[in-house]
Write a structure and sequence with these properties.
By secondary structure, the protein is an alpha+beta fold. The chain is 26% helix and 20% strand. The termini are far apart.
Length: 191
């Protein structure tokens, strides 16, 4: 049986990410040494074009489908759901789903492998003292920041724990007062 036939049977001729029955094709989830159905998923043309997109504009409403597909029992589907949620983590709902998602250790390692992720920034993200920042670091705000849309001011000296990096090396993300915000990296120092 071909890989495509196996995938069509596995998910009843529907996209394994969004459930669409139209314009389906096999997508190999990188890295793939030798193509097989365990390392591939069946996706619609909409999902495939956004997975392969190098720009950072995604159809957010379309990707709300990950709320269901992230619970798939198929590791390749879990990996793609994880990777897309990582790309979309500026959206509060996507970050919430990422926080809830459970992956076995080997599947998490596959999902976090460099291959298949959104393109990495060439420049490192640096704090105000030019110290390199990494995902998961803790930082302190060095000036008051007015948070537009959330109607509060993040005060100088506020600790921001477990930051996330963005595709822009000048920005980081973190939670302040329970709200996930984007912060200019020059306005923080590493703890």
């Amino acid at each position: 049986m071909s890989i495509e036939q196996t995938l069509r049977e596995r998910n009843s001729d529907k996209c394994e990410l969004c459930g669409s029955p139209e314009s389906l094709s096999v997508y190999e989830v990188p890295p793939v040494a030798e193509p097989n159905s365990d390392k591939s998923i069946l996706v619609c043309s909409k999902c495939e074009s956004e997975i392969n997109s190098t720009n950072s504009t995604y159809d957010m409403n379309h990707w709300r489908c990950l709320n269901d597909s992230m619970w798939s029992q198929v590791p390749a589907v879990q990996v793609m759901a994880y990777r897309m949620l990582k790309r979309l983590n500026t959206e509060g709902w996507a970050q919430d789903l990422l926080d809830m998602m459970y992956l076995e250790d080997d599947v998490r390692e596959w999902a976090e492998s460099a291959a298949g992720d959104a393109p990495e920034a060439d420049e490192p993200t640096l704090d105000n003292n030019k110290a390199p920042l990494a995902a998961g670091d803790n930082v302190v705000l060095i000036k008051d920041l007015v948070v537009k849309g959330a109607n509060f001011t993040a005060k100088r000296g506020t600790a921001v724990r477990n930051i996330s990096l963005t595709s822009n090396p000048l920005h980081i993300e973190g939670r302040v007062n329970g709200t996930r915000i984007v912060i200019i990296s020059d306005y923080v120092k590493k703890m």
